[in-house]
């Protein structure tokens, strides 16, 4: 076991079906999440993030491999582990006819120390601007997410496992959530956070694991993940795109994905802008639009770079 590892997996795998009809949801995951860090678990939908979380919580059983949380086997000590963690699922199912307060009271009584937990729940709800008197069926998707966060946080767990925690939250509440996670980390506690929102990862995570098709491609610091220095460029000309320009751009190693659509030129640029701007001046430029890469773009570029190493 790795020292200070709150979560550790060794060859953790999940295969659905058998033979030619089998599907590998998670393939030999080896991962460590350390105490006092916010670990971002990244990947597009269907990458295997939720499968990993369900395995860690012993909600489904692995096809191979093993995992520990707090040094305890996730299967042998699942009940003890659950007492020490807070969990927010990606798809939250609650009693539609009950109010938020009724659900909070029920969960607090199940956990024990209800008075202390309820006081903490009240503080968290107030901070998230959640009205707990409303029934679940009357809550918006964002407010249901807030209620899920209250339930996950109110017993002050040692480890938080959060699956897409800010889905449906407005930007101000997302900022509050980020502040709460930073405070949580400062107290030496640990967060395992599944997400596909790059801005969220950049805001709060220390390290990230990048998952694709059930395979962990790499574990990087946030700085390492975001060192993909490319942009999408869109150029609109007053007249047609200069005919010789496309050929000249093809000879520039930092330019790729060149496409012409009438008077518009689209391309991808890696590195400095100056050489490109000199070439684009071959015609009268009416509009120059520069777009930051999407998370999917960064994934693709990151995977490509890793495969070349």
Overview of this protein structure:
The chain is an alpha/beta fold. It folds into 2 domains: 5-225, 3-Layer(aba) Sandwich (Rossmann fold), CATH 3.40.50; 230-292, Alpha-Beta Plaits. It is built from 11 helices and 14 strands. The strands form 3 sheets. A 6-stranded mixed sheet has the order 6-7-8-3-9-10, with helices on both faces. A hairpin with a 2-residue loop joins strand 9 and strand 10. It is globular, with a radius of gyration of 24 Å. The two termini are 29 Å apart. The mean pLDDT is 90.
Provide the descriptors you would attach to this structure in a database record.
309 residues; alpha/beta; Alpha-Beta Plaits; six-stranded mixed β-sheet
CATH architecture of the largest domain: 3-Layer(aba) Sandwich
Distance between the termini: 29 Å
Strand content: 25-35%
Rg, rounded, reads 24 Å
Major beta sheet summary: 6 strands, mixed
Short description:
The chain is α/β, with parallel strands linked by helices.
Q: What secondary-structure arrangement, pairings included, does this model have?
A:
Layout: E1 5-16, E2 23-34, E3 38-42, H1 49-56, E4 64-69, E5 72-73, H2 78-83, E6 85-88, H3 100-111, H4 114-127, H5 141-153, E7 159-163, H6 171-186, E8 190-195, H7 198-204, E9 207-212, E10 215-221, H8 222-225, E11 230-237, H9 245-250, E12 255-261, E13 264-270, H10 274-280, E14 285-291, H11 295-308
Parallel strand pairs: 3-8, 3-9, 6-7, 7-8
Antiparallel strand pairs: 1-2, 1-4, 4-5, 9-10, 11-13, 11-14, 12-13
